[in-house]
Amino acid sequence: MRYIYYILMLCAIVALTACEELIDVNLNDSDPKIVIVADLYNGAGAQEVRVSRTVNFDAEQNYAPVENAQVYVRTGPGQLYGFNQQERGQYVNTQIPMEVGQSYTLEVHVDDQQFTSQSVMLPYIEIDSLGLTKENIFDETYYFVNLKFQDPEGQSDYYRYRVSLNGAPFVFSTAMSDKFNDGNQVTHQIGAPDDMELKPGDDLRIRRAIINKDVYRYWSEYQSTNPGSAAPGNPTSNISNGALGYFSVSHIKEYAVTVEELEEESDLE
């Protein structure tokens, strides 16, 4: 009986070893992909497009800037604007007119590859009021900024928020749609960046953008698959030819809030 037991154990070990040998994952030899981040918006002193390549898994940095790319944006009427390289992988133009209702086409040429995308600047959806909320969650106190507005009825609307806490660079906060509240009075609640909390005395700046559906999909996938991750995955890009990243043209407005000690919700305007 013990002899049969040893035979069965030996077979199991051989089977597991064989299975392990079939797994051949090479994280370091994947083909590099072009990554394009082009976020154009009204009020920017200079419009910027960043072009880079992905690198091997064990590289010291997670991207490699692409130099000497050819970067253009074409407006709906056909005017072509070229971008000049300012830093490695960073291309800038200060002359593009940003107009609501205008379509914009991005063209990026890297070696013998061409990458394109199109975006439209949608009208801004104004807020009605801006307020602070103090909430108790699991015996912890949290502050939030509430933006209340009327969502337009009968159309799909998409919103993206970036925040800057106490003068730090702006970072992505959240993306939202009106899928379940089309035409309603809506409140968007915005808090501090990940791993931080709003406290009395903090200064929070909020950039609210009205974005296209494909850009919303990018950020929605980002926030659903990479909560707080320092190494995000690859959301669905709206750029052709297999490029990663996204192209967005949006109308934004910026709101500044100083957090005050509260007992309950308070309207700021």
List keywords for this structure.
269 residues, 2 helices, disordered N terminus, mainly beta, four-stranded antiparallel β-sheet, twelve-stranded mixed β-sheet
Structure, explained:
With 269 residues, the protein is mainly β. 13% of the residues lie in helices and 43% in strands. It has 2 helices and 16 strands. The strands form 2 sheets. Strands 1, 2, 3, 4, 5, 6, 7, 8, 11, 12, 14 and 15 form a 12-stranded mixed beta sheet that branches. A 4-stranded antiparallel beta sheet has the order 13-10-9-16, with no helix packed on it. A hairpin with a 5-residue loop joins strand 11 and strand 12 (171-177). The longest helix has 21 residues, at 2-22. The radius of gyration is 24 Å and the shape is globular. Mean pLDDT is 85; it is low at 1-29 and 228-232.
Query: Which sheet architecture does the biggest sheet show?
Result: 12 strands, mixed
Percent in strands: 35-45%
The 3D shape can be described as globular
Q: What is the radius of gyration computed over CA atoms, rounded to a whole number of angstroms?
A: 24 Å
Number of strands: 16
How far apart are the termini?
A: 83 Å
Which SSEs are present, and which pair or pack?
Blueprint: H1 2-22, E1 34-41, E2 47-53, E3 64-65, E4 70-75, E5 80-87, E6 90-93, E7 103-110, E8 113-120, E9 129-137, E10 140-150, E11 158-165, E12 171-177, E13 185-190, E14 203-210, H2 213-225, E15 244-258, E16 266-267
Parallel strand pairs: 1-15
Antiparallel strand pairs: 1-2, 2-3, 2-6, 4-5, 4-7, 5-6, 7-8, 9-10, 9-16, 10-13, 11-12, 11-14, 14-15
